[in-house]
Amino acid sequence: MAVKSIHKFLLVVGFVSLIHAAYSAAQHRTYLRITEQEFNSLPFDIQLQAVLSLIVLVYSILQVVGDFREIRAAVDLQAKSWETLGNIPSFYMFNHRGKSLAAQHEENPEASVD
């Protein structure tokens, strides 16, 4: 559990660091406009901070999210038998006309349905 909280902390640190790098880049561009200098590229420290922040973010997101499943559907279907492939719980229906027929059947047990 402690390892998961460390990864969540790294996730927050990565986001804060990336936001700081973006803010520093915008501030650098503003400085260049004020001093009427030409923009060639961002300083190396801002570039390095942005790249390291992205690496920390990707790593921590992969650790926090958990296990991935296989993209190919055939891998999941290999472990199932033919009987379980047709079993789709989302198609189960419990509100049907059988309830109303059962109510009539209980009221008049001698009546027969032809």
Automatic annotation (TrEMBL):
This is Membrane magnesium transporter. One of its GO terms (cellular component) is plasma membrane. Belongs to the membrane magnesium transporter (TC 1.A.67) family. PANTHER family: ER MEMBRANE PROTEIN COMPLEX SUBUNIT 5 (PTHR21181:SF7), PTHR21181. The keyword Transmembrane helix applies. Keywords: Endoplasmic reticulum, Endosome, Golgi apparatus, Magnesium, Membrane, Transmembrane, Transmembrane helix, Transport. The keyword Transmembrane applies. It comes from the Eukaryota. It comes from Phlebotomus papatasi. It is found in: Endoplasmic reticulum membrane; Golgi apparatus membrane; Early endosome membrane.
